[in-house]
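Co-fold these.
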Amino acid sequence: MSDNLATSDNLLEAKDISKNFGGIVAVQKVDFVIPRRSIISLIGPNGAGKTTFFNLVTGIYAPSTGQIVFDGKPLGSLKPHEVTQRGIARTFQNIRLFSNMTALENVMVGEHSRLKAGLFGAVFRPPRVVGEEKTARQKALDLLAFVGLGGKGDEFAKNLSYGDQRRLEIARALGTDPKLLLLDEPTAGMNPNESANLTKLVERLRTDLGLTVLLIEHDMKVVMEVSDRITVLNFGRKIAEGQPEDIRANTEVIEAYLGKEYAKTVAEDKGKI
Amino acid sequence: MAQVKVNPATTSGAPKSPRPFNRADLERNKIILWVVLAVIFLVLPFIGKPVLELFGPTVFSSTASAVNSTLLFVLLALGLNIVVGYAGLLDLGYAAFFAIGAYTMGFLTARGSPLYDTFHTNFWVALPISFLMAALFGVLLGAPTLGLRGDYLAIVTLGFGEIVPITINNLTKVTGGDTGLSGLEQPSFFGYQFTASSLEGWYLVTLIVVFFSIFMIRRLVNSRIGRAWMAMREDEIAAAAMGINLVRTKLLAFGLGASFAGFAGAIFANSLGSANPSQFKFDVSVLILAMIILGGMGNLWGVIAGAVALAMSDRYIIPFLTEQVRHVADGIQLTTSVVNGTRVTEANPIKDILTNVGTNSRLLIFGVILVTMMLLRPEGLFPNSRRKMELRTAPADDPQALITTDPLTQADEFRSINYNPSDVTDQSGNNDGDKNIKA
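Predicted complex below.
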């Protein structure tokens, strides 16, 4: 099976994934496919299991059933840092920067698993390590510039504005050299202007860096604009999947978001959305 | 100060820096400063000895032994600072590693050691073994505590700190029980024979270890490993998500921190010629922790200053204060009266209390110093430059401040945020989920 997948166009395939917390089923039998170099959005009302799904992919939780195959190899029960080494990076919904470290250091922490210096190397700094640090620093500066934080490398993460902190989270995730980037509500709390800029940034992740992006987002403007395909979760189940236009018109999705009554009204004057 | 290497290098490129400066010049000046410092400290005992002996025959030896024990405390504080200050793992049983270093040295070199007939060696061989043993125990203690943080970790380490001296005390056949090990064979170095009274020699040995430790810590902090420690201290989940192996990073901090105590313990035991379980009690752990809190956690120079301040006040200021209190107590005249023909001395509670304070108040005075410090300067004498910057540049500790620093964007923000109560519940639900991370 994995032989097929290695050559397949899908970077990630999740099959029949479930996650229970005691009696609560957070994610139920979800099948999910992310083609290479695509931007896929995961939407759904609050508590639908979106972040749980992220945590399953990134190894923070182990799935109760099912299997996730990434880049041709099953993730199995890898720990979070091993998942990151395999090439999956993420940002957090509630910003989790290293607040008392500078922006530059935050990104350099992201590069951790791609650097090799051990105890001996760190203390005695052979030329190999000096070179490695220099490259790492330059790469971090480049990434900061890429997300629009050029010149802010010396600021402490906690002193950055909210929007800049969200960008720094992305830069830090990029430091890990990911193949797949998971963004958990990157525009939460942003004004429309900042959201629009971030939408452009997400598109540049694909065009400039060749990344595949999985996005959780509540801002429908962003989702509709940027996604190749949208998957909708509700109560842990996948209720719809398709192109942005299809999802916009899907009755079940409108129901999940706005309630049955409203969905009926929408259906009555259909075509207006 | 530990971050000095990062800051000039990065600010030099930033537009804020008003005048550009040459990084190579800075590096050269720093090296010169280090060499000058090293030379001063190395020749200190040889200049200090004739000068101090002018003041009296014992002034040099008492000063030198105070300086030597201060240096050992500096070494201990530096080691604990790796664990607590950089990696953020609260360790209340650090004296255990000090004990393990001392007893390893004792086993390998003491004439009273049960190993003496089968295997004994000299100080220079035993020193690295003590260091490795302490590191090994650091890792062994670290392993079961990997899932713990904060208070829970502190309790486990506290337990370990109690177990080690009690075990040593009770394993009478092996460790000599509460009489300890004695007759440690002291080293010779190119014909110079160390004894318990060769204070200059022990000073130089400890000084070299301290200098190397400072060098090592400065290098580590500005490296991949130091960044991983600090990231772990700031946020374990985010650190793991950035590819940091938490297990390895924590154990490295524990092991390395403990190895400093191993060094200190080995030198301590051999310089005294003996090791005794009462030297490694809980108050030693607390004293070392107090040093790094007093000086400024996470700041190398602050920690050194804190260690010097507390070790020196333990030697000079506190005995002076307690003596003054005793003096006052002695001055209080007891009133006597004649009852039924016999002279009765009336009890005087104030005199009793003062006498008690004057004899047993070492820890009381430490407590007062620490509480005062926490009230007046909670960030320590020389706070970590990060914390200092925080206090200068932003209204810290207020999460809202992050959003509202810029009045212009602040206005935009308010216009655009559609407050949705269910967002908040989603957020907190997510937080709960994060706590149940996979072990």
